Amino acid sequence: MVTIGDIHQGATGDCWLLAAITTITNVSGLVEKICVARDEQVGVYGFIFMRDGEWISTIVDDQLYLRTREYHDADWYVKAQFSGKEKEYNQTFAKGSEALLFAKCEDKSETWLPLLEKAYAKAHGDYGAIEGGWTGEGVEDLTGGVTSELYTCDILDKDRFWKEELLQVNKDFLFAAGILGSVTEERSGIISGHAYSVLKAREVKGKRFVLVRNPWGSTEWTGPWSDGSKEWTAEWMTLLEHQFGDDGAFWMSYDDFVHKFSQIDRTRLFDPSWTVTNRWIQVPVPWAMEYSPTRFEINVTTKGHVVIVLSQLDHRYFRGLAGQYSFNLHFRVQKEGETEYITRSRSNVGMSRSVNAELELEPGKYIVIFKITGEKDRTAPTKDKVVRKTKKYNRKKFLQIGMSCDLAFAKATTEPEDEEVITEMAARARKKEKERAKKAKAEGTDPSEHEGAGAIWGGGAGAAAASQQGRGVGGRPSKPVASGRITKRKQSSKSGMRAGFREGETADEEEEGEEVEEGEDKEEEEGEEEEEEEEEESDSDEEDDDEENYWDAVACVGLRVYAQDKELAVEVVHAPDEDSDALDQDDPAKDAAGDAEDDDEEDNEE
């Protein structure tokens, strides 16, 4: 029997995950659904987790890390105390849950929690990969639900939130809470930058209470209704079924809850009556913040509640290979043939993996238009540099993480219009690789030091090279989606900076660069040594500056739609030409100034 008091955090900074596990233990059967197979005699366990909209399986053995070394490897001064007493040493340091280094159960004979934590860590690479995170995303991974990030300061009608949302905890929703802050501080026992589980919401005798738990298994709320406070009487102890104890669980009033906690993660659960469908695509991310011409089309056949989720790949599975770019997602929903949108996603402050919206829809076709805003961290290493520095030292781990990245990108298709832009990136990437190889040859160094990422993972130049050869990321053929329904759209000169351009470079300059590249290739084929000498003498500072300003962002995004509609479908389409001329207050690339310039040009023609 799994209970909330079983859970205690270990040496890894995964309080967010343990808070998520605590949250789901309050719903009967959820933990059991994650552990799908086990053979206790052999010591093998099988778990499933949600990854990028689909369930994945992970198998682990029952070997767990201990806080101390084995007897034969122990320090000499420890051995001196147990000289010739190996059995006594093992009884002291290697038996029961207290001996474990990472998460542990309250019951010393139980191991379900450390095994679950081990499986989750293995699925993501190692224990280091699960340090730091958001409880809402952890609950998503464990349940397949959809998490919305809420802020207590944004709750305008707290009475309605209590009745329609929080009272549904452990039914339609699961909740977690925290206090945002880069500096750890304590607010009457509540730790900032730490994750908490919301276990119950009760209204008794006109008073509203929330039961919260700290995954540490200690350090509790010290305000009103805390353990031992003056508010507690024998009657209230009975009514709320509460017992005092330093177990990490505590009651607090609803008013104190929304006042002390700044963030609430609300996860919607789905039962078998819901249908889910999703599509993944790979798109270039423009330097200018504009909506993508590639869009999703949702076909709804039954009136009802619909949950729409736009997500990017979970980089935790291939941490270190995400490169210099980070993305934020935005989308809006409008009915086919209409220009006004019905709803749009709300940007998250913390969780950036996905954004969502919930709405009631009538039968019909709806268009989801999305925008990806990217940021480039020039201080972070590029994928190529990570490969060159790490592949020699831990090849097994490198291949494991690289394969995870490759498989993640393999699910995405690339639209023909987007593939043209990505191909331009590939051409630039090949040119840079040639320059690195020549530089290595001139310096007499190992050419492998200048190798790029190749096709070991998807995205960026590696994915572009694979796409240009007629294959999708991960070796799968690239297939156009919604054949016969895609309208080609020419790149507008007003559309700002395209992906694959250097910052501040125009389309004409890019075309000139391509001509120069073709000339260089021709000269190389003819074996002209003068060009090679000029390449070798190129200033390294200028090369570094070019790499720093070059924008080649590519994102893999997926649309996931939930509805109680058996015929629910999602397709990928391309924007018709006339859509690019619409004035849109959400799109800085299509502003009133741009339209005014067009009007001036028409007046001059007249």
TrEMBL record:
Assigned keywords, A-Z: Hydrolase, Protease, Thiol protease
Record keyword Mitochondrion present: no
Basic and acidic residues bias spans: 432-452
CDD domains reported for this sequence: CysPc (cd00044)
PROSITE patterns registered for this protein in UniProt: CALPAIN_CAT (PS50203), THIOL_PROTEASE_CYS (PS00139)
Record bears the keyword Plastid: no
InterPro entries: Calpain_cysteine_protease, Papain-like_cys_pep_sf, Pept_cys_AS, Peptidase_C2_calpain_cat
Ranges of compositional bias, category Acidic residues: 506-550, 594-606
One record GO biological process: proteolysis
Signal peptide: none
Domain of life according to the entry: Eukaryota
Region of interest called Disordered, as start-end residue ranges on this chain: 432-553, 571-606
Calpain catalytic domain boundaries: 1-270
Gene Ontology terms for molecular function: calcium-dependent cysteine-type endopeptidase activity
Transmembrane segments: none
Active site: C15, H194, N214
Protein family membership: Belongs to the peptidase C2 family.
PANTHER family: CALPAIN (PTHR10183), CALPAIN-5 (PTHR10183:SF425)
Record's protein name: Calpain catalytic domain-containing protein
Source organism (scientific name): Tuber borchii
